[in-house]
Structure formats: structure tokens, C-alpha cells
Known about the structure:
By secondary structure, the chain is mainly α. The chain has 15 helices and no strands. The protein has helices at 2-20, 65-73, 78-90, 94-107, 111-124, 129-145, 149-162, 167-179, 183-196, 201-213, 217-230, 235-247, 251-264, 269-282, 288-291. The longest helix is centred in the N-terminal third of the chain and has 19 residues, at 2-20.
Amino acid sequence: MRTQAAMLLALCLLATLAVAAAPAAAPTAATDTTPESTLENAPTTPDRETPPPVPPAPPRITDDATYQTCMDRLATDPAGAQTIADTLAGQGLAEPATHCRALAQIELGNPQAGAAMLDGLAGSSQAPAASRAELFGQASTAWTMAGDAGHALQSAAQALTLAPDDPDLLVAHAIAAIAMQNPKAAVSDLDAALAADPSRNDARLARATANRLAGHIPAAIADITAVLQTDPANPDALLERGVIRQRAGDLAGARADWQRVGDLAADTAIADQAEQYLALLAASPPNSAEGATTR
């Protein structure tokens, strides 16, 4: 499920960076009253090139061959998968039909509908607790894609009641907490996820964001540095480091990171975000590079 968590992280970073965490306007050397930067209101809705939150290998809740075919069809033909789901329902396989239909809805661009179906299925399913937890986790992912952080947090919390030590679910809950502007709770979740699996770069990246939002810039720098030491071409990490650098007053470093994002991830939503940050940075007062401060 780590791929799902990574996709969720990328989606949430795009959805929250400008609203809860975008670079602040740098004050001039002469005054402290520079208006808030329009980065606070920069559009960050993921575009259609952003991967959907359905992981490449979603959890399976039965070994039925028709259900397996339905799940395998999701990535390439979600409308066809939905038709197969109708066949499953006609065979009396209600839970497999609902699961595949929900994921098809997400792939078809209806994450809110898919999330509601996944929540309902996880709540009523007779599947083992671990499987139900993964269903709630998928629901949380879909709610995040739909821009509904409140429901995403609720679904992730329900998942953790069933599998409290699952690192993927801890990351999902943390990302929803970030979107709800509760970075302290997110850091707690991510500490637990990293204690369980220190290799989780997705969790470390999310913790860098949460620490920055909480005003813990040295901790944010430590986490983002660790991520980029092992994955130096990670566009999400470079976008985040650029924000951290801007907050710390390193405008040249921020500019370099955002330019690198554009080079690595051209024609994607994250590259568009970096381009917006660069444009707004260029519009800052010329003497702000020496006088930038954090909020």
C-alpha cells in the first residue's frame, strides 16, 4: 500500500501547500507591512494528469475470478470495470461488486462518490479487520482527492481503530491532519510511522511539511535533507524544500529548487505549482532577498 500512500502525499501536498503552507511574502528591508503574497491563494487543484488515488494493486477482498478481472481492468478501462461490477452484483457478490464499482468511480473522476461507497463497504463488510482497514484507507485517499479533508481524516481514523500500527494508515491520517491544519497531530502520526519503518521517505517528507507548518523549521530542514539525500530527484521533496528555504530567507535556494521541479516533472501539476511560486517570487520587491523572514 506504500504506492497509495505516496500518491496520497503528492495529492495532499498540492492541495495544501498554497492554502495552509505556501511561501510567505518577503518583507522589504525598510518595512514590515508588505501585503500577504498571492501565493496564499494560488490554485492547487490537481489536474487530470495527476494520478488517481487508486494504487496499482488495490487490496482484494475475494478470490473470485470475475472480481479479479474487474480489479485488473480499473487502470485501463474503468468504465468496463464498472460493467463487470454490475455482473458481480447480479451474481450476488455484493461486496466485491461495490469495491470494484467504487474504485471505478474514482478512476472515472468521481472520487467523492467512490469514497462514500468505500466507507460504506468498510463499515458493513464481513472481511477481516486488516482488509476493512485498507478499505477505509482507500476511502481516505479518495476523500483527499475530492478535497474533503474532514471526511479523509474520519476515514483514516476509522482505519486506525482496526490497524493502529499500520504505517500506511498512519501516513494517511497524518496527511489528512495536515490538510485540516493540525500539524502537531500529523507529526505524532508520522513519528509513529517512522518508528515502525525508518525507510519511509513518504512519511519523512510529510513530517517535513508538518514541522514547517508547526513553525519547527530546523526539524523540517532535517527531514527534507534526509529525504533528498536518498532521493535527490524527488519533485515533491524539492518543492517542499523550496518552501522551507523561502521561509528561512534563502530565496536563491528556493528558486533553484522550484526550477529543478520544472525540469524533473514538466507538464505536471507539481511543475505548474513550482512555476506559480517562481512567478510570485519574481514579483517580490528587489531588496526582499536579503530581508526575507518567516511567519
